[in-house]
Design goal:
The chain has 101 residues and is mostly helical. It contains three helices and no strands.
């Protein structure tokens, strides 16, 4: 809210604004849509766009940065495993490959 000196993060529990149908998009549109969705999801999970606020919250020791680093590395490893499983499912024919959507 402007003018109060406070910042608020609002989430809605039910999407009532409409949506897009990705199956009807061409490749460039789908890539743009995915990028916007990823940015929105990242912001929603971050809960703060301010590095200074995050740093202030974490204090001056190394515990908070170390925990963030540990989480990020584990998350990256999980992402690599998920991608490998996805590619294997494509190779095995368990997921169809659809071109031109």
């Amino acid at each position: 809210m402007r003018g109060t000196g406070r910042h608020y993060y609002a989430r809605q529990l039910r999407d009532m604004k409409g949506s897009l149908n990705p199956s009807g998009m061409d490749i460039p549109s789908l890539a743009s849509y995915a990028q916007v969705c990823g940015a929105c999801l990242g912001r929603a999970h971050a809960r703060s766009g301010s590095p200074a606020q995050l740093f202030g919250y974490g204090g001056t020791g190394s515990t908070f940065p170390d925990a963030i680093e540990h989480f990020a590395l584990r998350y990256a490893d999980q992402n690599d495993r998920d991608y490998a499983a996805f590619m294997q499912a494509l190779d095995d024919g368990r997921l169809p490959v659809i071109y031109g959507i």
